[in-house]
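Hi everyone, sorry if this is the wrong subforum. Our group has a chain we'd like a structural model of before ordering constructs, and none of us has done structure prediction before. Sequence below.
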Amino acid sequence: MTSLAPAFPSASVRIYAAFTVMAAAVLLVVVVLDFQLAAAQSFPSFVLDPGGFPVGRDFLNTWMGGRSAFSGGPADWFDFDVYMAALAKVTGIPGLAPMYWSYPPHLLFLIWPFGLLGFLPSYIAWCVAGLALYVWAAASCGVERKYWPFLAVAPAVTVNIFLGQNGFLTAALLIGGLANLDRRPILAGILFGFLTIKPQLGLLLPILLVLRGHWRVIGSAVVTTALLVAATAAWLGPEIWMEYWRKVAPQQHELLEVAGVMGWPIVASALINARLAGVPADLAWVVQGVASVSAVGAVVWTFWRKRDPVLSLALFVTATFLFSPWIMNYDMVVFGWIVALLRQRENETLADQILSLALWMLPILMFPFGFAKMPIAGLILPLFAARILWRLANDTSQPVSLATSPAST
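Answer:
Right subforum, don't worry. Here is the predicted structure as tokens:
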């Protein structure tokens, strides 16, 4: 047994290096294919990928939103038919795959600069700036330099670039807020206020903040959110919020029901994973209810008293994905930070590291497994949460803050 002791750390380093290289290769292939398609025509003409979406996919929504900041805002686009007509007019393509503009209006404060550029340069800037912001946030909040490549090529990064989504931005906001709860509570609250652009990522935050007594964070988040709402109403008119609540909520409910085989594989929730497995809709909602209640219970138990900070954050982020019925694989960028923090610890067993790597790979794995109607997120997320809870329950070490833990030095 003694002679085998040094083998595991060495093998672990090699395994993580191998996964990093493989993930980098996949990222490179996706970027090359994207821009080969883009080069097929000279922009501003729009090039479609095999799925019938423009190269950059959902970034078209961000680009359109940025442009709308200079022309009265996106209120009319909360109506699906109106938005599809606007897309056809801008792209010159009447047969685009269905797209929705269903973002909270104050997102415009963060995306308006991207409306100043043409589509392709704006898409490139979005990806480069977003990736840099995410890596900087994770590096500033505990990840050692040697794991920066592991962050930068995470499968969730590839998914975000391919889908043109905002996971880099929301991950940076969530990471910054969670890591600064004790050190910079006002900043944490401001970041959480901006995180309301993706409300499902903050649904469990009030429980954590109340249990840990972070009243300054709560106050800062409430004030920031109120100012963003008021500023948006002053800028684009108060009716934009009325239109948002009137039209977007029913639209999101419809998406839950009709997204089907093309949309469900990228949804990580218990509800949609149950639907993928063939569970009827009513029973799938029961499954989601059980997952949501369990997630709340896990967060309450974890933060009722001070525990290991990295394990607590890992539990909280995982519980967030279990709680919401509508949460995507591109939202999983934040897990790159969590897995990197766990990797830096000296007490990670082989089983822990295998499970962490499975979680790290999940955003990519969801595509093939989802199209095969195999709900892999419904397996890995609960397993990871259960393992973290077990470790928290059996942890006898003295809790320290994230700022002073070995993972952040």
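For your construct planning: Residues 182 and 214 are 8 Å apart (CA to CA). The first helix runs from residue 7 to 39.
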